[in-house]
């Protein structure tokens, strides 16, 4: 049997652990073919055979040894045809797609066309429905918390407000949990908009009492006043979001203008994605990989692996991509206890 | 209302997050009294009032600001009486005990005597039943994995076998997951004894192929041959376990003798307990603390908080202490895929 | 004897180690008075007595327990008078100023007015002349190198160019050494401008061969073409520098436009200043503090402590502030060996 | 020209940076031959050609890609002959030996026999004379300080004395500086023996005042009483030193017996050697490598590279191995200020 595996979308700590998990748990008569740069590798026919030696120790490395891209092979008829030709040419019996929404949607579509496909969910944002966690998320939260820990001393020494921007376009998980872990004094996430005035109320209360403040803000947060602002090219991107670094700078400016306090902004951006995964993410990636191979051996296709409590389970591919898992109000409310 | 809180047993990263969670989520009319050094504080009447200012930023610190001890107030009639007197004297309406088996057993007994008690489970070993994780565990696994990562380069450069000993008297969780995360080539845990000959088979296979090896061993592991050895004072402690550092040195010696390979042993011991908790453990501790306070406000006593998937729930105090959660065979088998 | 100590300018890991070093090495009959928020504390008369207990364990913390500011007491006659009144009022026999150029210039001026003053140099940029290193610098380099390490995996997985901006207005030390340590493929510092075309030559060579690239750029670097550009308010600050984040975004845009490669920018900014100092910086700060106190006891005033090889020495205050220590060409040339 | 390079003795973070520095700075017409496992590679003729691609990114890895051993080719006439034959067979014009005393002594002897040899000093103990620092040392101090930081919380929470053992047979540098950086309350190094009674005086003073204590002890420290104890096979090794782990356990036992305090011992051992080097050590290793190649190109043989202040210089090979650099009394006295 020949199994093609690929990683698509943004890179994420733990991808290599999944790859190693698949390769190491493959029975002897199963060949694993790594498809390079996501679905692109299948379209252009770029691949490499993966053996035990190729994956020795890779679970400790960030990124993905297979490379990644955002190529969608269903974008053009031409690409779809090439993909199907290459599946045949490479003799692939099964395809395991490791990736986010886009990657899994392609896998689901292939599955509905009769191909044997398995999905492994990947999102550093932790917003895949029907799984407790995805790998990479805990690493991002740790890196973010670490960075915020580090900013406390500067904010305190200078009596400043530091606004730190983390990832999260629609789901605020990374920002919320990194902020909670590192004791941010206000956390702003896309799910729960606030008006500038509400924000300033928190700012004044904190500054009066303690004289310094850390605000964690997700890139996708917009103050209520700006919710319907669309179109300022220089600040708003094609999705109607304030651009990377935009919201932190925006908040720093408006708070400084309105209160006179000394503010600074820091944008963590890509720092959260990279580097060696935490133990949790290495193990979760490994278990996902091993479980994906088990599904293959049981002939249980069209499914996605997922974490429920301490167990790895599988669910229909469609379920994972159906809805985004946003931060529930209850959980956000809990974080508010520590806004001060 | 006055609530007494205490931390008992071995220290664990995340204890301070629990304390902060309780204090910060307490309504204004609720006073929190910190009892010093576990149950001992209640026996000798040593306590301090805890306010918001006392817990500012402490969730980032290892250890416990309340101190800890292994004192069991039911050990003597005299101590029990003093404890009950102090509960009255301090005017405590509720007691929240944060600790392991021993601490929770005392809380359960107090509860059965009619006192209002809540338990928060604490074990770095992750062996409390009916909760997915306890705080401190992920930190220990990360510190352990980090240490093993670091040993790889020495083992490889010198062509050596390094045997690294981690915590785990009866449950091998820390050793198993740190070993899996860091790519140990053989993992030995109490739940699944192996004979020396089986171990040597792994050693020879690995050394022939790669020329170096990392073995992770739990302090409570005993080779099958030694299972019934009891009584050698110098090596076996009162519980019939090989002493701290004992099994690593034992394995290093016997492997070296029987194979001629160059071996070294490293005992991580207390390094795994200390220091700043990971984001996961800070958040879990925080959520436990907040939930314990919610139970108090709902009047839901005699219960222990627990994690199920992404939710904090509560279960009867007795359930948590009823049985140890050991590593299931399925999970151990998964780790074996990577023994090579 | 009463000694006033203060920390001025930007915060820096190791400041607390200096404070602890001074306090712990003070003889019993010497009182240490901490002046709050740099010279401002002396102008407004805000101070606190510092005892052994106040400095217990603080050398591990980032920032400064005394707070800091950029107040210059010689800016107005009024402030100067108040400062001199407060020196008298507080009964200060000696003043130890811990800070950069500005702070030390004030100390030197006080010294020339007849006050007993000692300086301890502080700059995260490592650009103080006549000292091998200043504390905080190694920490910043480590944090920077760590961040760049982490960006490698993302750049590689996506086949991208990541431009990472580090501190350094006039001196490129932090950028150069963090870049060298983390294997950046091109390093751009203020001391050695390059034309855009030269930069693009490096970019093309690297991308052709390896398909991804990390460029480390100091905030104060300007491509040769922009050297005389002054005045674009939105991008150039009062000193004629491209604003924070400016040069990284600028480079990302121009490289992307001119080569078509996928680029991203990351600005480390304040992340480099904060957090717990490395062992080297804790020790250097400690030794500086102890040596400053020795100078006081020997009556050797008007001097600044400095590091020469493994020894702490002292030099006249004026020498330290006389000239900036820039990256010498020889050293920059060495880094070029690894540009590929 | 063909240059043979090798790494000998204990592994050390930064070795790979030296190797990369040599390979990357070699002119095009110079071939670099890596000799495997120290001098052993030259005796048995095991080698590999090293190109730019082989050293890409290795400066970040601990250990040595060339492997290491303690083989001394002058131990037998037979080995010496084989070594000389292999030098001829491999066509080596120059040999660069990277290692400690033993490795450099061989290089010096080869040099005196007329071979062109260069030495790069390596010792994690920092005890090479005539160089300010050697690579690997700062990494070991950081890892040690980090570990001790982590032990503080446990010691404090339990009211315990923790004795932590670090490297240092004859020179106490690692122990002294890690202990100073992490705020150990007593530091014991081989250069300055103390009697048990003196130690107990420190213990009692500290415990009375603070109730917990961290003692850092070098493996080579012996209480004055034991200085002339030789021969107890189980505890004293061939060099008359207490065995690894011996002194920490010994101190823990004797302090517990004599004072009744709860004590624990932790042995850091090999943890200090491994893992990714700090930025300082990566750069120092790189500069050593580049400078060694410069010496080759200048024809300046029989020399060892060294660090003086911020400069890399070279000295005759014999000077480096002539004497050990021990901790001077002045420096030890400074550390005593913080014993409390």
Q: What features would you describe in this structure?
A:
The structure is a homotetramer of 340-residue chains. With 340 residues, the first copy, chain A, is an alpha/beta fold. The first copy, chain A, has two domains: 179 residues, Rossmann fold (3-Layer(aba) Sandwich), CATH 3.40.50; 137 residues, Rossmann fold (3-Layer(aba) Sandwich). Chain A is 40% helix and 17% strand. Chain A contains eleven helices and eleven strands. Chain A has a seven-stranded mixed beta sheet, with helices on both faces. In chain A, strands 7-8-6-9 form a four-stranded parallel beta sheet, sandwiched between helices. In chain A, helix 1 crosses helix 9, helix 5 packs across helix 6 and helix 7 crosses helix 8. The radius of gyration of chain A is 22 Å and the shape is elongated. In chain A, 58% of the residues are buried. Chains in contact: A-B, A-C, B-D, C-D. Chains A and B meet through helix 5, helix 6 and helix 9 of A and helix 5, helix 6 and helix 9 of B.
What labels describe this entry?
homotetramer; 340 residues; alpha/beta; Rossmann fold; four-stranded parallel β-sheet; 11 helices; elongated; EC 2.7.1.90 (chains A, B, C, D); monosaccharide binding (chains A, B, C, D); transferase (chains A, B, C, D)
In short:
Chain A is α/β, with parallel strands linked by helices and 340 residues long. Chain A has eleven helices and eleven strands. Chain A binds chain B through residues 24-25, 52, 57, 59-60, 132, 138, 141-142, 144-145, 149, 152, 177-178, 180-183, 276, 278-280, 282-283, 286-287, 290, 308-310, 334, 337-338, 340, and chain B through 24-25, 52, 57, 59-60, 132-133, 138, 141-142, 144-145, 149, 152, 177-178, 180-183, 276, 278-280, 282-283, 286-287, 290, 308-310, 334, 337-338, 340.
């Amino acid at each position: 049997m020949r199994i093609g595996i690929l990683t698509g979308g943004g890179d994420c700590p733990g991808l290599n652990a999944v790859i190693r998990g698949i390769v190491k748990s493959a029975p002897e008569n199963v060949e694993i073919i790594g498809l390079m740069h996501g679905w692109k590798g299948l379209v252009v026919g770029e691949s490499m055979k993966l053996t035990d030696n190729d994956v020795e120790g890779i679970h400790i490395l960030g990124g993905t040894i297979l490379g990644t891209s955002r190529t969608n092979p269903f974008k053009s008829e031409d690409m779809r045809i090439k993909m199907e030709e290459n599946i045949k040419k490479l003799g692939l019996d099964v395809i395991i797609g490791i990736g986010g929404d886009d990657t899994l949607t392609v896998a689901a579509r292939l599955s509905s066309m009769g191909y044997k496909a398995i999905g492994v969910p990947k999102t550093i944002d932790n917003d895949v429905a029907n799984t407790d966690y995805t790998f990479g998320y805990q690493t991002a939260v740790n890196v973010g918390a670490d960075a915020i820990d580090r900013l406390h001393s500067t904010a305190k020494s200078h009596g400043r407000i530091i606004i730190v921007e983390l990832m999260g376009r629609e789901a605020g998980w990374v920002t919320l949990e990194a902020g909670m872990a590192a004791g941010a004094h206000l956390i702003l996430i896309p799910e729960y908009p606030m008006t500038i005035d509400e924000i300033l109320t928190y700012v004044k209360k904190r500054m009066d009492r303690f004289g310094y403040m850390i605000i964690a803000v997700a890139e996708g947060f917009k103050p209520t006043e700006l919710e319907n602002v669309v179109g300022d090219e220089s600040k708003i991107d094609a999705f109607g979001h304030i651009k990377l670094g935009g919201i932190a700078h925006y908040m720093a400016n408006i708070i400084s203008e309105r209160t006179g306090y000394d503010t600074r902004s820091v944008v963590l951006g890509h720092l959260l994605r990279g580097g060696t995964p935490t133990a949790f993410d290495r193990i979760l990636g490994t278990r996902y990989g091993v479980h994906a191979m088990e599904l293959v051996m049981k002939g249980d296709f069209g499914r996605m692996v997922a974490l429920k409590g301490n167990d790895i389970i599988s669910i229909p591919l469609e379920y994972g991509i159906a809805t985004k898992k946003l931060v529930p109000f209850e959980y956000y409310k809990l974080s508010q206890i520590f806004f001060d």
